[in-house]
Fold this sequence. Notes:
The chain has 192 residues and is of the alpha/beta class. It is built from ten helices and four strands, in the order βααβαααβαβαααα. It has two domains: 8-131, Rossmann fold (3-Layer(aba) Sandwich), CATH 3.40.50.1010; 145-191, no CATH class.
Amino acid sequence: MAGYYRYTAVLDACVLYPAPLRDLLLSLALEGVFGARWTSRIQAEWVRSLIAKRPDLDPQKLQHTIALMNSAVENCLIESYEFLIDSLVLPDQNDRHVLAAAIVGHADAIVTFNLKDFPQAMVGERGIEVLHPDDFLVAQYDLDPIRFLGIAKSVRKRLKHPPKSAKELIATYEAQGLPQISKLLTAATDLI
């Protein structure tokens, strides 16, 4: 929509791979906290990695998850970015598609665990931040703590198989390499 601005982040495959982190990020996006974007290639990458590690998972169910994600998050899918890939330089050439998508998708940030693969010197000149998911989540929390906690509570309440207490959910985030947001959530355990 013309004149509409919302902070937009391309979610790298490594942050979509762990279901609890993916669920929290998508829940924040669905509530309009930020604009989440990705490509079909990013989707295929996290699914491929997950199936390699967990061959017991049903690929059809993961494809269903992708379809749900793509239909639930408005304007999430970035297309027609491939022309830019070969012109980009990154330490790992296999990550150029993420940067190309971020440029074409007018993203403000790339959220990734792999910070070294997106040196700020190379990415920042394009006006794109590279953020660890823990830093990204803390920034979203700081913008509106009560809203963030409400969303985290909704995430926890949706967990049925198995259900998790607030402390168990926070422990899951901590185990996924998110110590800062885990500390903030621990201070507000009663609210989630």
